[in-house]
Structures are given as C-alpha cells and as structure tokens.
Amino acid sequence: MFSEVSKRVKKVGHPPGTAIYTGDKTGTPEITFTVYNAEGAVEKTGNKLETCMLQRKEGDITWINIEGLHDVSLIEKIAKEFKIHPLTVEDILNVDQRPKVEEFETYLFITLKVLSWQSKKSLLCVNQLSLVIGKEFVLSFEEMDTTRFDNIRKHLQNSMHQRLREQGSDYLAYRLIDTIIDEYFIVLEALGDQIEQVESIIINAPNRRNARAIYRLKQQILLLRKAIWPMREALGHLLYMDETLISKSTRLYLRDVYDHTMQAMDTLETFRDMSASLLDMYLSGLSIRMNEIMKTLTIITTIFIPITALSSIYGMNIPDVPLMQSHWAFIIIFSAMVMIVILMMLYFRKKKWI
Amino acid sequence: MFSEVSKRVKKVGHPPGTAIYTGDKTGTPEITFTVYNAEGAVEKTGNKLETCMLQRKEGDITWINIEGLHDVSLIEKIAKEFKIHPLTVEDILNVDQRPKVEEFETYLFITLKVLSWQSKKSLLCVNQLSLVIGKEFVLSFEEMDTTRFDNIRKHLQNSMHQRLREQGSDYLAYRLIDTIIDEYFIVLEALGDQIEQVESIIINAPNRRNARAIYRLKQQILLLRKAIWPMREALGHLLYMDETLISKSTRLYLRDVYDHTMQAMDTLETFRDMSASLLDMYLSGLSIRMNEIMKTLTIITTIFIPITALSSIYGMNIPDVPLMQSHWAFIIIFSAMVMIVILMMLYFRKKKWI
Amino acid sequence: MFSEVSKRVKKVGHPPGTAIYTGDKTGTPEITFTVYNAEGAVEKTGNKLETCMLQRKEGDITWINIEGLHDVSLIEKIAKEFKIHPLTVEDILNVDQRPKVEEFETYLFITLKVLSWQSKKSLLCVNQLSLVIGKEFVLSFEEMDTTRFDNIRKHLQNSMHQRLREQGSDYLAYRLIDTIIDEYFIVLEALGDQIEQVESIIINAPNRRNARAIYRLKQQILLLRKAIWPMREALGHLLYMDETLISKSTRLYLRDVYDHTMQAMDTLETFRDMSASLLDMYLSGLSIRMNEIMKTLTIITTIFIPITALSSIYGMNIPDVPLMQSHWAFIIIFSAMVMIVILMMLYFRKKKWI
Amino acid sequence: MFSEVSKRVKKVGHPPGTAIYTGDKTGTPEITFTVYNAEGAVEKTGNKLETCMLQRKEGDITWINIEGLHDVSLIEKIAKEFKIHPLTVEDILNVDQRPKVEEFETYLFITLKVLSWQSKKSLLCVNQLSLVIGKEFVLSFEEMDTTRFDNIRKHLQNSMHQRLREQGSDYLAYRLIDTIIDEYFIVLEALGDQIEQVESIIINAPNRRNARAIYRLKQQILLLRKAIWPMREALGHLLYMDETLISKSTRLYLRDVYDHTMQAMDTLETFRDMSASLLDMYLSGLSIRMNEIMKTLTIITTIFIPITALSSIYGMNIPDVPLMQSHWAFIIIFSAMVMIVILMMLYFRKKKWI
Amino acid sequence: MFSEVSKRVKKVGHPPGTAIYTGDKTGTPEITFTVYNAEGAVEKTGNKLETCMLQRKEGDITWINIEGLHDVSLIEKIAKEFKIHPLTVEDILNVDQRPKVEEFETYLFITLKVLSWQSKKSLLCVNQLSLVIGKEFVLSFEEMDTTRFDNIRKHLQNSMHQRLREQGSDYLAYRLIDTIIDEYFIVLEALGDQIEQVESIIINAPNRRNARAIYRLKQQILLLRKAIWPMREALGHLLYMDETLISKSTRLYLRDVYDHTMQAMDTLETFRDMSASLLDMYLSGLSIRMNEIMKTLTIITTIFIPITALSSIYGMNIPDVPLMQSHWAFIIIFSAMVMIVILMMLYFRKKKWI
Hints:
Five copies of one chain form a homopentamer.
Chain A: H1 3-9, E1 30-36, E2 41-46, H2 49-53, E3 61-67, H3 72-81, H4 86-93, E4 100-103, E5 107-118, E6 123-134, E7 137-142, H5 150-157, H6 162-166, H7 169-204, H8 210-239, H9 248-314, H10 329-350
Parallel strand pairs in A: 3-7
Antiparallel strand pairs in A: 1-2, 1-3, 4-5, 5-6, 6-7
Helix pairs in contact in A: 7-8, 7-9, 8-9, 9-10
C-alpha cells in the first residue's frame, strides 16, 4: 500500500527531469520492435535498439514495446530518437505515477495502471504502463515481462485483422489500452468472488478471522479505487482533445473504453458499499451472539441461584427453622424449587428468550 | 451481483467489435416485424428476416423487435442491413453494458436496463434492452421473451391511437423507453413493500434473521442504483442532443421520462437512507435487549447471592457463631434476608430498572 | 412513504398523455374563479365552468383555482379552453410528480409540493399544487380543499393591495408560490419542536421508545428532503428563464422565494445532522447504562462470592479443618470476611467504580 | 437552534414586502451618522434622523449605522430617503435571513451573520448585520448595540488613516465585513478550546457527561456551519460582480476576506471531523471499560465458584463421601482448591487478562 | 491544531494591510541573496539588504530568500523595493494563511504550507512559505531556518545545471515549489509507516492504547488534508493563468507538480479511509474479546452452579431427603454432577463455544 510513497521518496532532492528508476531492478529489459503498414508487419525481438531502428520506413508505423524499465540509458536513447521531453522520461521511469494523459507538441503521453490478480496468494498486483503515441510511432513501457500484448502482435501479423494494420498509431494505442482495461474485469471478478466467499462465511459460520478478511477486502478495494478513479479522468480527457493525434474514428472506440472504465468504477463502488454492509452484518452478528451467550448465562443463573439460596437456608446450623423437623420438609422445599424453575421458565418464555 | 463482471471476462483477449454474446443461451429468438405509417400498421411474427424485409416501403417506419440475443449471425445480418457499426453490434450482444446513449452518423444507440420483479422468489431481475433508432427504423433487442411491448403493438394497429403512427421513429422509441421506466416503479413498489415489512418486524418482534434481511435489502438497492444512476445520465444526454434524430416535440416527452427517472432515483436514495436507519434501529434494539437481559441477571443475582452468603455463614460447622443457639436466630436471620431483598428492590427502583 | 410509488403503478401500460387521476377520490371539486385588473376584482365560487368563463374580458387576468382533482373531465375541459398540452394535464392529475418547472410555448407549468403539519397526529402531510401560468391567466390545481389562498383573494378585492392587481399573472403566481413556501417553515418548526422534545427526553430519561422516535424523525426528514430538494432546483431554473412570461420585477421576488427554499434546505440538513447526533447520543447512553448495570453486578458478586466460598469451606463435614474447634474461629473468619469486603471496596474505589 | 424557524413563522400570511421585525424587541435604536470625505469626517450620534440628513453634501460619503431594528417606522423612513426596495426592507427586518448578496439597480444589499462568543455561558450567539451599499452611502443595520465598529469610526476621524477616507463607500463596506469575519476567528478559537478540553477529559478521565459535551459541541458546529457556508457563497458572488459598485482595488481586498471565510470553513470542517473522532474515541473507551469490568467479574467468579462447589460437596449430609473421614481430607481438598486458583490464574495470564 | 486560529485572533481590530507577524519570534532572520543569469550566479549571505541590492544588474534574476519573518521592518523594506502591495506583506507575515495563488499587476503571490516530519517526537510540523514572483525576481519567505533550498543554490552555481540559470524566474519558482511538494511524500511515508505499525499491533496484540493511537493518526491526517487540499486548488489556478508571468514551458513543469499534489491527495484520502477501517477493526476486536470473556464466564458458571445447587440440597439439615441415608448416595449424586458437566460441555460444543 505504501510502497508507492516510499519509492517517490528516492527522488527527493533531484532536479526535475532527472531519469531515476523508482521500481525494483530485474534482469535485461526485453524490447519488441514491430513495424507495420496496411500490407503487413515485421516483428523483431531482442535488446539491440540500433539494428531495429534501421528498419523503419516512411509511412510505416513503429511500435516499440519495452518490458522492464531499469535500463535507464536505453530509455534515454529511445527518448532522444523520438524527441521525448525529459519530464516524460522521468514519468516513464517513475513507476508510481497517477494515471494521466498529457499532450505534448509531437506526441501524447499516457500513464496507466495495469492490474493483475495473483490467484495463488490472492493478492492484487499493480504495475504501470506508459504509452507514448506519435503520428507514426507507439512506444509502450511495461514494468514487468508479460504476455499481455501477444494477441495484438499476432493480429498485426494475421491477414484477417487487416483493419488493425490499416488504421493509424492511435488505433494501436487504443487496442493496447483496451487490453489493459479488459484485464480490470478479471481482477474485479476475483474480488467479487472473495466478497461472496466472506459473505457466505459470515452468514453461515462467523468467526473472529472475519474482521481481518473484511479489512483486507477493504484495503484491496481502496487500492483499486486509487488506480481506477484517475483513469476515468484521464480517458475522459482523451475524448475531448483536439483531433491532431486521435482520429475521429478512434475516438469512437475510446468512448467504448471510457464506458468500460465507468462500469469498472460502478462495480467497485458497489463492492465498497457491499464491504461496508458486510462489516455491519458481521458486527450485528457479534451483538446477536453476545445476546445469546448472556441469555444462556442468565437462564442458568436465575434458575439455580434461588435453589442454592433456598437449600443454604435449610443448611444453617440454627434451631427452630420452620419445617426443619417436619417429615414433609423435603417435599415442600423441593416443590418450592420446582415452582421457582417453572416460574422462571414461564418468565423467559414470555420474554421470548427460550 | 457479480455475474455481470464474470460475463465480461469471457470477452478478454478478443479484438474490439467482435460479436460475442455474453448472456445465457436460450431457444430460437423471436422476431416481431412491424411496418407502419399514418394510415395503418402491418405486423409479422416469425424468425425469417428476409421475407419481412421485403415489405418495407419508402416513408414507412420499420420496427423490428428481437427477443433473445444468442443467434449472433441473425443480429449481424440485421446490422448489415441497417448499416450498424461493429461496436454497436458488440454492445448489443454484450448484455452487461452500462446504460448509455451513443450518437452515430445515421442512428442513435441506446442501451437500458430492464428491471423486473419476481414476486415468488422476491428477487430482482435485471435484463438489457438495446435500441437502435434511425430516421425510418427502430430496432429493439431484448434479452428475454416478454410481453412488455404488446400494448404498444396493439396501439399501432388501433385506429384510436393515430398519434402514435403519425409521429416519427423517435416517438416510438420514446414509447418503448417510457414502458421500461414505468416498470421501474413496480420494482420500487415491491422493494418499498419489503422495507415496510422488515420495518414492522423490527419494531414488533426483532429476531436474528433481521440482519440478513436488511443486508439483502441493501444489496438489492445497490443493484438498482447501479442500473438507474447511469440511466439518468444517458437520458439527460439525450435531451441536449441536436435535433437531427430526436424531434422537438418528442424531446418534450423525453423530458417527461427523464423526470420519472429522477423520481425513481430520489425514491431509491430515500430507500437507501431508510435501510441505513433500519439497521441503526435494529442494532439499537439489540443493545436495548442486552441491557434488559443484563438487568434481569443482575437483579436475580444481587438478591439471592447475599442470602446465600448469609445462610452459608450459619451453615459453618464452627462453635460460638453469634445467635447460633438462640431461639430467635431464624427470625432474625430471615428478617435480615427480607431486609436485603427490600433494600435491593428499592435500589433498583431508584435506578428505574424495575 | 411508499404511497407515491404505488400510485404511479396505476398508470403502467397506459399511453403517455392519458389523463388518469392517481390520488384518492373525494367529493365535488370546488372551483374559484377570479377575474381582475388594476381597478378591481370579481370572484365567483361554484363548480360550473361555463358561466364563469363568460366573464373574462380582454386585458383582464383570470385566476382559476380548482380544489380536488378527481373530476378528470372538468380538468380536460379547462385544458382545452386554455390550450394546455396533454402531458401537462397528465402531470396535473398525477399527484406524485417531482417538483419541477416546465416551459411550454404559451405557458409555464409548475408543480410544487404543499406541506402541512397535522399537529394532532404529529404527522406530516404532503400534497401537490400545480400551476399553469399564461400571459393572462393563472390556473392552480390543488389536491385538497384548503383555505390557503383566502388571504390572497382578500388582497385582490382589497383596495389597499393595489400593487397585487396592477402586476401581471406572474406576480400572482409568485404570491401563490410564496404562500406555499412560507408554510414550509411551519412544518420545519413543528419538526424542530419534535427534535427538541426527543432530545430533552434522551438527556433526562432515556427509554427504549427513543430509538423508534428517532427513527420516525429521520423518516419525516427524508420525506421533507424529497419534497424540498427538487423545489430548489425548479425555482433556480425559474430564475434563469428568458423574460417572456416572468417579468424582471417578478424575478426579483422569485429570487426571494428561492432564498427561502435554500434556507429551508439548510435547516433541514441541520435537522438531519442533529437526528444523527441524537442517535449517537442515545446509543452511547445505552452503552453507559450497560456499564452501570455490569458494575453493580460485579460489585455485588465480587463481594459476596468470596464470603460464600469461605463459609462453604467451614461448612464441610470433614475432620481437622483448621480453627474449626477453636473458640476464636468465628471472630477470625468473620474478620477475614470483613477484610475481603474492605479490600474489594478499596479496589473498586481505585478503579473509580464507586 | 430552532428560534430561526419559529421567527419566520410570524410572517406567514403577510404579503411580501411587508415590514415586520422578526427579532426580540429592545429599547430605543441608536443611530450613528457619519459623513466623510478625503479631508475629514463628521460623526453624530442620536436617534433623530432628520437633523442628521441635512449635513450630507455632494461628493461626501454617508454612513448610517443603526443598532436595534425594532423601530420599523424609522427604518422605513431611511429606506424611503435612499430609495430602497420594499423587499430589502423586509429582509433587513427579518433577522433570520440566510447570508446573501443581492444586486439592485442603485445599491448592493448584503446580509451577514455576526457571531459572538459569550464566554461566561460558553454560548454561541448569532446575530444579523445588513449592509446597503450605494455609490455615496453605506447603511449598516445591526440587531444589537455593539462596539464592534468603534475602531473604524476612530480611523475615519484619525488623520493617520487617510486611505480609508479617500476610498469609496465600497471600501468602507469591505472594512465593516472584514471586522465581522475577523470576529469569526475568536468564536472558532473558543470552540477549538472547548474541543481540546473535552478531548483531554476523554483521554484522562472519561465520564458519562462526555456524551452530552460532544453532542453540544456538534450542535454548535452545526450552527456555525449554517452561518458560514452561505457566507462563502455570498462573498464569492461579490467577487464576480460587474464593477459599477465594487471598484477593482476594493475587489482585491474582498478577495482577502473571501480567503478568510474559506479558512474559517476549513477550520470548521476540521472541527466537525474531530468531534466525530472524539465520539468514536469516547465510545471505544466505553467498550474498553466494559471489557475490564467483565474481566474482573469473570476472574473473581471463575476462581471462587469452583471452590464453593467443592466445599458444598463436602458439606452434604450423606454417608460415604470419599475422604470424608480421613485426616488428610482438609489438606487434600485445600490443595485442590489452591490448584484450581493457580490453574485459573495461569489461564487468565495466558489470555493476557491479568 | 488550533494554534492557527488563535494566531489570527492577534490581528482582530487592526486595519487591513497592517504588517503584524503572527508567528513565534526567533533570533535574527537570515537573508540569502542570489543574482544569476545564463552565465553564472553570485550568492551573498548575511542580513544587510542594502549592500546586496547594489549587485543587481539589468537582465539578471534576483532571488532573495528570507528565513525568519519576525523582523517586520526588514520585510517592509524589501516590499517597498519591489513594489509589493500591503495586503501581500500582511499575508507574508500572517503565517496561518490558507495556501493560495494571487495575481497582482507586476507579480504573482503564492503561499504554500511546508510539511516536515519530526521523527523523534513522531510529530507533524506545518510551516509557511510565501513566494513573490516578478519578471526579474523571486522572493521566498520562510518561517524557520532550513537547508531545504541548498540543493537549488548549488545547482545555480554549478555549470552542469545551466538549464536552471537559462530559464526565467518562473522556472526557479517552480523548482522551489517542487522541492516543497517532494517533501510531502516524506511526511506521507512517515504517516504510512505509522498506520502500518498501528495496524500490526491491532492485528497481533490489541490493547487499550490503540484507540488513542488511531485518534492521533486521524488528527494528523486532518491536519495534512487542511494543508494539501487548498494547495491543489491554488496550483490548479496557476495552470490556467494567462502567460505573462508563467511561461508555456514552465507551465509544463507546473502540471507535473500539480499531478504530484493530486497523488499526495489520493494517498491521503486512502490513509483516511484506512484509518476509518482500522477503527472498525479495533472496535470489532473489542466486541470479539468481550464475547470471549463472556463465554468463559458463562461456561464456568453454568458448569459449577448446578453442582453447587445439587450439593446444597444434600447439605440441608432436614430429615427424609431421598438417598440421604443410602450408601449409593455419593455415587449417584456424583454421577449426576458428572452428567451435568458432560451435558453442558456437549451443549457448548454444539453452540461452537468450545
């Protein structure tokens, strides 16, 4: 939860535009280089930028996907090649950005949160994806190695998906964003399953671990909100930009992505309200349980304490206690005891405790 | 609650504009085909699209109502006929859309949530209705077979309701939307009845099942909010569109529908606040009950424990306990016991416990 | 609370613009017909519309006040006379409208909620008032017979109040609205009195009926909010309309009414927060009471249980219990008991329980 | 709290623009009459309007301050002199106005709430100040006699404060408003002190009166919010008016006052959140206390009840109870008792109760 | 918390624009005087303003940094030199300003809150920084002596950071603001650590000090909110100003700072929600603990009370109690007791209490 803040602290004292990677270092970053036009696409994987760069031709669209951001010099090289502002480089490397869209003169910079669900640890994982969209290029910077965009690469090669190749860099960018937003629903589904699970436990067999489970649910919802809320804003901003970089037809598609984000938001807000309701039900469950415990105690106590008192009286070693010598003593006293029990029982029944 | 999210997951990985039905499959979809102009209306039911299409004439308005969305190829055929954008087809088939209004060049696309109340299971049912409104046609796509629009069909045939036939496709669309919104009030009434029922139980005979009942109420209110909130937005959007597809006179009617949606929202917000109040009252009821249980326990205990203690003292097998040999012993001890009881009673009365 | 929704259900299935009265039927509606100009006013009471209509003259302002809406044909007759849109007629008859202002070509339609306080049952009563304001006429439709507007009628007759007669129909409408809003403060005062009453009970002698009283307060506040909130919106809308029907000088007065509505809203929001505070205080009162009950139980128990235990030990029928034969036995044991009581008392005093 | 509403009720039934004083009557209203220009200022105190009026000269600025509003005829006379709209007179006399700014053709009307803190009764006092600002006059209407504006009067006389005399009536008005807003911070400081006091009591020695103290705090915060919130709105409105009455340089100063109001609002919202936190801490304190009481009870009971039970068994008058005749009886039984106590103690220590 | 309000009170009664320092006095204020242009920078430290002033040249940018605001006459001298409005001087000296941005004719005035974390006392410290940005000068007023801007001074001297020297005064101002906002994340990290600490205590070993810890957390979050919220507004205002003082390229950088503030806000809101969740978990923890205490009490009581009652019956000194003479008495009675214990145990196991 707090990793984000602590990472940013690394940067304090450095002048703005300084390229410092704020994430955790991994091995060699993987570069996937794709050049395509309406006719076809050429793809190269590796980590040598220079050889790839040579293959660009006028009119082609170049898509460079970098997985792993720790090689700062590599990213600065790419930035120089595509004339990217130092602030953008700083934002790409700073993996704790708030999702946003920024317009620069020759390109559009988009930072998004990528959500993934680690079902083994039932843990939510938040990474960052940065997109730089120019007229003839798309740069995508991922924090981790993923297979997320493999499908899109296949479609670029595939003759069936000509539409994808025919449209501009903005359409490709839309497809990348769409892939990210679609994954949100997987995370939301996992979260929904968790809520249902906790709910069924609380209804059937509440226990003291529930409080912690609800607390963890709430934390994850908070984390998700922090990732999705600004996304809505950023995408909304994208819709109302002027048409230099985003074409009118792509805008139609982006509106669709925007709607999906809105739906994710709605679902999340519903989850939030539900987790609050769950806590209410859990707490009222504790109160009910308490009432029951106290009822049991009260019933047992109010039945046996008078009996004990009565027999204690006849256990006193003093003379002339009434009935003490009588042969009817036990029967009378015992009847009195039975009477007490019956009266108490009737009283409790009237109160609807038993 | 979560079905919605899980359905969307089916679509992850597919390129946008891919027609995939995300609902549950049923039998053969039923097509109702109606062509009308000011003079009269012709209606055809069946599932052969081609024969129906032939009957369209210049100047007539065509209304095609499809019940059941699983026959993807059928819907694609219709889409092709009326030149509908692939994204619209995708949205029609994806039955988990957020209610929205989208303007395309030749038509208006509206997605609404249809609410119905299954009184037997006291369950809320949310389906989707998609409308495509062109200059001379209205396409309505329903998820389930319903008799919802039968009245409108009758009115189209009926000579008394000439106004309906005289006005354009936008007026028909308004009538369809109006029918949907009117049904919201049936659901709200059912929900209101449920709230009143839970309320009267909590006031008269609260029990441990109340917490769950309130929880379920809250869930249903959340579900409804999620359906109605974006509706308001969508309809509001419709009111401020330019006048190519929605005529000025129809706009007057749509304003009316918008007001109804606002009223439904207001009622829902009131329900929401009431269910929160219900929970408060229920929880305070539990506290009051607890207080009463504890009072009973305390009264019984504080009366009999001193008596038991006193008689235990006289039950000790030790010599020279004061009064032990006295003939007055019992009377004195017994008086002391009665005194204790009376003093305790007075104390409790002073405290207003009894 | 829910009557509103249930009434609307009556209308489901009917085409829009159908005149159906959704309220409860009463006797004959009473029509008050007033025609006035700067010189004077003529008033007619009765239920024959036709005779009244004849008395209208060019340049005069006609005010028709109808009390009771169940005579649908009468209202349709009036509507026809003044060329009122079927949707307006529908809205007049549907007494569950959300307060709103609607502009039509020749008139302005305003729907307001009339609040009245039935002090006997301490019940809040919500009715509807519809106003149709044309250039030379004002139609007011009330649900019930009231004496609400008698003062205005008197002022119309009275030579002292010439200003009222000199200004247009919009000023009369303003006066009618002003009368309605003024009555809101009577209701708010009654509600404020109730809150103060509950408050003083909770502070002085809390009891289990308080929870229900607070719950009822909250419900009434919710009901009021639902009536007043949209009013603010509607009146705000009225202020920013173009000047065809509402003159600039009347607008000044309407701004005043708007301010009053805002003040009513503020007061209501304060009431809402106060009722929440009341519940908090009530619940904390229950907790405090519980603590006190438990303290009493604990003090009594912890004092007498050790005494009982000690005497039980000396009550055992076994040989060689220390002190058992001693003549000092009782004094020693009794001293021990007194010691226990004193120690316990000191402990409780240290804990500030007694 | 509710006085405001009840006062307004006095006015129900009267036509708008009727001058009715809604406050509580006091003695003779005091009029302070000041005429000034860049050279100097002349001040007259008394209650004869006419003699004062004669001293006005072309180009001078006249400031009339009226303390006490019950002399309705006096205020009507002034209103006539300065051509003030009847609605403004009504608003001046109605001391329960919502703070607002209203533009009229020849003057600006401002209504503010004056807050003062009666430290003796630790009570918040809300009065009203109405300002009428014309090109060459400022009228200020106060509900009570105060010395609030004495400083400003001195500055007007004083040659050191020439700036005040040199600028227009709008600057004087600003100075009056500034004085009022400055007093808000005195009230906020008093409230802050109260919060700190309650806070330190709750932390150190919570008692049952705390709930009421928090409740009263909340009420006062509500009252303040109701006074300050609309003020912000009104002053914001003042900033964006056209420049006929408020000069550009005065606007700079008003922006400062606006900032102060915003700061007062921020502080108040913080107080609101803090009082909510206080209640939470108080309630959790009650729960903790309860837990401790119950622990004490449980420890005492679970230690002595088994001892009592064991000795009761050996107190039975039946033959052949094991050990009963043995000389080791007491030692064995007593050891068993000690064992029970030790075991219980260990159990409680493990549970961290002792 | 309240110091802010109390400081402001000092100023009540003084005319606006009066220079009064509202902070706590310290020693001699330190002035750092820096003059730079694209070629290089000259820096002077000391407290003699006049000698420094002489070194300014046409085209150079002058940055004066004052640490300590208590020397009012010094600040007035500077103000006179740079033609600063009296209201600005008042705002600089009044260290309780709400963060804001104000445009004056020749300069821009910015007031910010400087947050620092005193890790020893784990206390949040809020100071004020005022910036006056002219075309050729930047004045920064700090409340305390800090080393905050030492890095920027080094960069100004350093030939590597030529960019900083080449750009205008607005860029320097941006760098100062950026330094301040970066420090926010250090405070947020410290707060995040505190939340995690409290969280781990509540999960592992909750105790009665937790309530106070959560309360203190909440207070600090409130304090931070009050500092950061208006900052966002002020910076947002800065972004949409016209381009006289803030150049287009600097605006790009300010947008970055704005994004950081938004992120700080998001994090703070998340902290706020988390502290609310912590309290919920703590309170539910108390309830669970209570349930456990009561279970223990109930189990012990319900097991031993029937045993005590049974043996008391056989302890009565009355004749003819059944079994009393029988040799099987003890075995039968003892078996009954064991039976009671077993039955109770089974009952508790069924209820899942043990």
